[in-house]
Design goal:
The chain is mainly alpha-helical. Helix content is 72%, strand content 1%. Strands 1-2 form a two-stranded antiparallel ribbon. Helix 3 packs parallel to helix 7 (162-187), helix 3 (68-100) packs antiparallel against helix 10 (218-233) and helix 7 (162-187) packs antiparallel against helix 10.
Length: 298
């Protein structure tokens, strides 16, 4: 009897745990511990040299009551996220849906996915040739030649154009991963569902998209939505490449650049940890909202 109990425990508990244990260890080391460390640091005054000085909620009080630049970064980040997140999400879905209908989908898939595996700094350098502020920038040169402009626009130095430039570059770069997930979802949809739909009266691809494809792709839509949210609120490399710190009038300042400023330029690790905690709460809350809206569970 004891041998049977032990065998059942071994098969049902020990063996499954042995498979997921490496993941659990790495997840704990590289995710749980850093998050807990950031929460702890957010309540301290720490500069990497002195010892920890516990100061309670002083960092958060300073963040919300005294730091005007943080609110500029918060506004820029939400503006960026409200535009980049939905536009990148829907553009990825639509392009994946269109390319899934094509014969040479592999070549088009590579073209759309390539930007997401390329360094953001490298791609920003390429895009900065388009948005160069002198006469030789591609956009300025074209608009000057056709007479729309009389003098070049300082795209990366004008406070009115810095954020739109960051948004344009980021939308183009953000489509790769979501696009690939959506395309994989399209290619793994059960064909019998579409055959049943045609019998029930669905007679065009738009009806198939609305009545069959979208309900079946809720897991991919959820992943794409969360990925868009995290990517939108974590914008950093493109913002720094377009408008290095500090950007004119903090027009390109985001929450992550604000965090980077205090962590690696001013070495105020406690305050930067407080910024990271606020960012974590925002992204986690929005992620939960998307989970509720797009969850496949009833």
């Amino acid at each position: 009897m004891k041998q049977q109990v032990w065998k059942h425990f071994w098969n049902k508990t020990v063996i499954p745990l042995s498979f997921i244990l490496p993941f659990l260890v790495l997840f704990f080391i590289f995710t749980i511990i850093p998050v807990l460390a950031a929460v702890f640091l957010s309540f301290t005054d720490y500069d990497l040299i002195s010892t920890f000085d516990f100061i309670g909620f002083d960092n958060f009080k300073k963040l919300f009551l005294e730091d005007d630049v943080f609110f500029i970064a918060l506004k820029n980040t939400f503006t960026f996220a409200v535009i980049t997140g939905p536009v990148g999400f829907f553009a990825s879905f639509i392009m994946a849906w269109l390319i899934d209908q094509l014969k040479f989908r592999n070549a088009f898939s590579l073209a759309f996915y390539a930007p997401s595996i390329t360094s953001g700094i490298a791609l920003s350098v390429v895009w900065l040739y388009f948005f160069a502020s002198d006469h030789y920038g591609l956009i300025n040169y074209t608009l000057l030649r056709i007479g729309i402009l009389s003098e070049p626009i300082a795209w990366t130095m004008d406070t009115r154009t810095i954020l739109p430039v960051i948004i344009i570059i980021s939308i183009w770069m953000s489509m790769g991963t979501g696009f690939l997930v959506f395309l994989a979802g399209f290619q793994n949809l059960p064909t019998e569902q579409f055959e049943s739909g045609r019998i029930d009266g669905i007679n065009n691809i738009f009806q198939e998209l609305f009545y069959i494809t979208l309900p079946l792709m809720k897991p991919q839509l959820l992943f794409g939505a969360i990925n868009s949210i995290v990517g939108s609120f974590a914008v950093f490399d493109v913002a720094v490449a377009v408008a290095p710190l500090p950007s004119p009038g903090y027009a390109g300042h985001t929450i992550v650049t604000h965090l980077y400023d205090y962590a690696f330029i001013r070495f105020d690790m406690g305050y930067s940890a407080a910024v990271s905690v606020v960012l974590f709460v925002i992204t986690f809350g929005l992620g939960r909202i998307c989970t509720r809206l797009l969850s496949s569970k009833d």
